[in-house]
Design brief:
Low-confidence stretches: none
Number of domains: 4
Number of helices: 13
Distance between the termini: 40 Å
Bound molecules: adenosine monophosphate, glycine
CATH architecture of the largest domain: 2-Layer Sandwich
Radius of gyration: 21 Å
Strand content: 25-35%
Shape: globular
CATH class of the largest domain: Alpha Beta
Number of strands: 23
Oligomer: single chain
Length: 423
Amino acid sequence: MNIMVVGGGGREHAIIKKLRENSTVDKIYALPGNGGMSAEAECVNIGAKDIEAITAFAGDPANAVDYAVVAPDDPLVLGCVDALEAIGIPCFGPRANAAIIEGSKVFSKNLMKKYGIPTAQYEVFDDMDAALKYLETAPIPTVIKADGLALGKGVIIAMTREEARNAVVSMMQDKVFGKSGDHIVIEEFLEGPEVSVLSFTDGKTVVPMISSMDHKRAGDNDTGLNTGGMGTVAPNPYYTDAVAEECMEKIFLPTIHAMNAEGRSFKGCLYFGLMITKDGPKVIEYNCRFGDPETQVVLPLLESDLLTIMQAVTDGRLAETEVKFSDKYACCVIMASEGYPVKYEKGFELTIPEEIADRVYVAGAVIRDGKLLTNGGRVLGCTAVAGSLKEAVSEAYKLVDRVHFDNQYYRHDIGQRALKAGC
Ligand code: AMP
Ligand code: GLY
């Protein structure tokens, strides 16, 4: 069986490695993939947003694509799954009308309000003057969110009224996030530990995966700019059995039902970004896809076969499919280029010893003249699995020590918060 995976980062590398464990898998095409995954996949130089070229590739009988996994948010929101289904390719991933749960914050906030799903109080604005007027009396700190996809940067936590005003002007007048700033959400600032819960859902059944904790800020001790994620651990100690039960009852099932009621049945991986507040768990955001780098700790702990689960999701058979996770712990440390997420150099030679390559998920690398070179802000992630979180963290940093490239940067405290919380 041949599989096409759309996307090219560390998350896709983790998905591909897991799919490779299924012995019926022959070829895996990665569109575009990256040079660091060429041992497991054939990289095809087609961008993840080029729906027309992706569909043409999948439909070409010479490529014999049997199944497709669309991993990133952009192609999902742009209707990649709809286009592939239209030519008869079965897919893992939501259609565009369901991917909107991530593609529009206004949509997801209104959905939660309509169906009573716990989230921060909010107001939606499409007029700058009205937003600025609201800010004159709004409680501070406050959170300003651009409506559409903004590469994970469309959220500003304003600690002062002036910061809040500046954020509104930059989104709505200066259009720093383009059309995503046409509509904005201004919402209540919530406090509490954050938990990421990825789930498999076929629109009828929802099966949460093992919980995880991201480390979004660039610097140690959660300082510096927000990034795509500098490291993860799983499970997340704040996600206790009691919290999990409450989430299933008040958030996960109501969300699946709400999407069905809206005629937007969600099939694929639905990611719940949660905050455990003193009033219980609340939704900070939904993503219509696997998280990055959450996937790099969640999938290594999955004991069941990923392809079997994905196909069950596609066919609506999730209820009768085993989804089993190990009771071990995982830690992923992201190695980035110095200067990420702002300005960084690329093109440094990258060496990953053969003996640890199975635990390295490459996000940004390219092969040039037979050499593997760095080619992105986030270069790779090293994941260790162990019987305790302490051991997983220490083993992950040992892997980091064995990977070499100039100009590298990584956080030294991945997992420390979870350890202090008593994992
Ligand atoms: P998002 O892109 O929606 O995940 O937001 C990015 C980050 O901003 C989240 O991971 C939170 O740390 C923070 N954030 C978003 N919304 C809120 C909120 N209402 N209160 C406090 N922090 C928030
Ligand atoms: N790690 C956060 C995300 O994938 O959105």
